[in-house]
Amino acid sequence: MKSDKIGAPPEKVEIFLPSTLGYEKVARNAAEAVAQEMGFSPDRIEDLKTAIAEACMNAIEHGNQEDKTTTVAVLLTAAPNHQLEIKVADEGLSPMPEEVPPLGRFSGEGALRGLGMFFISQLVDEVEFTRLPQGGNQVRMVIYLTPPDGASRTKD
Amino acid sequence: MAKGDVVERQDGPLGLLDFPRDVTAQTRESAYHAYNELARARVKAIGLNFDATDYMNSAGIGLVISLVEDATQAGRKVYAFGLGSHYRKLFSMVGLTERIMLVGNEAEVRTHVGLPLGSTTVDGNQEAPSSTA
């Protein structure tokens, strides 16, 4: 957040989503609002929206198995150094891989597996997939307001 | 036809698929149904219309990959239009842009296919192009 701005919103935003596909758009909209407040460019905000939606979908579909008794926790933290950290945690009904699976381009069914994680890894500046000590999967993503090297945001 | 369905149109050798606002796993059934209608009609080219789309997730992009894979294997040329810069980038990242031609609008698709300008209806009848005064 722009901490020097009077009446600036809080630096942390936490959202709990039901494990129903479609609710990832709530996190997407929240991330967009926070990133706009921080001054991210429209292109960068689109990257962020896709990454957070994919992380939430993975949590809903795979981590929580779309079990209606579970929730997905999303924590957005606007750091003073103009970085936005996003944590998406599920309840771990099913473990998720801690590494991004290779993307098979146009190789039948294999091409579709891991597409969401592939997008996340390409669109944010830092990403880590972990198992939480208390159980559950967490995706931690960081996106910088200004790229460290001034390079294109999309990784090769 | 539900609000979030894919709708097909045909004009001779060109088949068009109009995608809804959200392109997700829920789009799959109507997309395959619409595509199969065009395949049965033996169209030579497919135009994917994303003019109305503002949210496409990985399942939706996976769906597009499947449709493009089927179309190209059947020898059909595939075009896409109505995509913003972000989704053009995502298409490029997964190799879709190597398989399809991204164009600006439906008129460009029609030019590539060699059809006169004008809009098609759901049942394939062509409407007269609007005159310019």
Secondary-structure blueprint of this entry?
The complex is a heterodimer of chains A (156) and B (133).
Chain A: E1 12-18, H1 24-38, H2 42-63, E2 71-78, E3 83-89, H3 115-123, E4 126-131, E5 137-144
Antiparallel strand pairs in A: 1-2, 2-3, 3-5, 4-5
Helix pairs in contact in A: 1-2, 2-3
Chain B: E1 7-11, E2 14-18, E3 22-23, H1 28-40, E4 45-49, E5 55-56, H2 58-73, E6 77-81, H3 85-93, E7 101-102, H4 106-113
Parallel strand pairs in B: 2-4, 3-5, 4-6, 6-7
Antiparallel strand pairs in B: 1-2
Helix pairs in contact in B: 1-2
Question: How would you characterize this protein structure?
Answer:
The complex is a heterodimer of chains A (156) and B (133). With 156 residues, chain A is α+β, with helices and mostly antiparallel strands. Chain A has a single domain, classed as Heat Shock Protein 90 (2-Layer Sandwich), CATH 3.30.565. Chain A has three helices and five strands, in the order βααββαββ. Chain A has helices spanning 24-38, 42-63, 115-123; strands at 12-18, 71-78, 83-89, 126-131, 137-144. Chain A has a five-stranded antiparallel β-sheet, covered by helices on one side. In chain A, a hairpin with a 5-residue loop joins strand 4 and strand 5. Chain B is an alpha/beta fold and 133 residues long. Chain B has one domain (7-113): 2-Layer Sandwich (Transcription Regulator spoIIAA). Chain B has four helices and seven strands, in the order βββαββαβαβα. In chain B, the strands form two sheets. Chain B has a five-stranded mixed β-sheet with strand order 1-2-4-6-7, sandwiched between helices. Chain B has a two-stranded parallel ribbon with strand order 3-5. In chain B, helix 1 (28-40) packs parallel to helix 2 (58-73). Chain B is globular, with a radius of gyration of 14 Å. Residues 126-133 of chain B have low confidence and may be disordered. The A-B interface holds A 21, 24-25, 43, 46-47, 50, 53-54, 57, 103, 105-106, 108, 111-112, 115-116, 118-119, 122, 154 and B 24-26, 55, 57-59, 61-62, 65-66, 69, 84-86, 89-90, 93-95, 99.
